[in-house]
Design a protein that fits this description.
Elements: E1 8-12, H1 15-25, H2 29-34, E2 35-39, E3 54-57, H3 65-78, E4 84-89, E5 109-115, E6 124-130, H4 138-146, H5 148-152, H6 154-165, E7 169-170, H7 173-177
Parallel strand pairs: 1-2, 3-4
Antiparallel strand pairs: 4-6, 5-6, 5-7
InterPro entries: Nicotian_synth, SAM-dependent_MTases_sf
Function: Synthesizes nicotianamine, a polyamine which serves as a sensor for the physiological iron status within the plant, and/or might be involved in the transport of iron.
Pfam family, one: NAS
Length: 178
Amino acid sequence: MVVDDSIFHNFDIDASANSVAARLVSSDTDLSQRMFFHTVDVMDLTESLKGFDVVFLAALVGMDKKEKIKVIEHLEKHMSPGAVLMLRSAHGPRAFLYPIVEPCDLQGFQVLSVYHPTDEVINSIVISRKLGGDGINGDVHDHIDQASDLACNCSKIHVIMNKKKNIIEEFAGEEQLT
């Protein structure tokens, strides 16, 4: 038997969204005791962000690319080094629904994986790690910054790869440096 003791803190600026989410998990006694809902603007969170190993950023946090980048910059400033940022983005015509976040928009993060679905799923997924800890140093960050033009073109590569093989393209730090 696997025991999951993960705790989830959900931050939303909309109190009614938190209320609906809390009702959705209330039927699962175990999960509902491990989920906490906070009504707050993510831009008001600073020191508390350092306490999380993983931060999930919803697709509609930041209604346009400029706002979304501002939130990502705030997270980069306040998350702990080595923490994982998983965010939802969009790709191709799905950008009409959600802002697109490219790997080059994740300054201060090492992009680990990008997935653009080719089925009815709308959101792309970008997984990255906050630089500055666990062996990830400024030298890697500087090298990734220099390669940002290449990283920004990865969406073109993903279109080709997803059409041919329907695979997840991995971007590990070691791979980016070669």
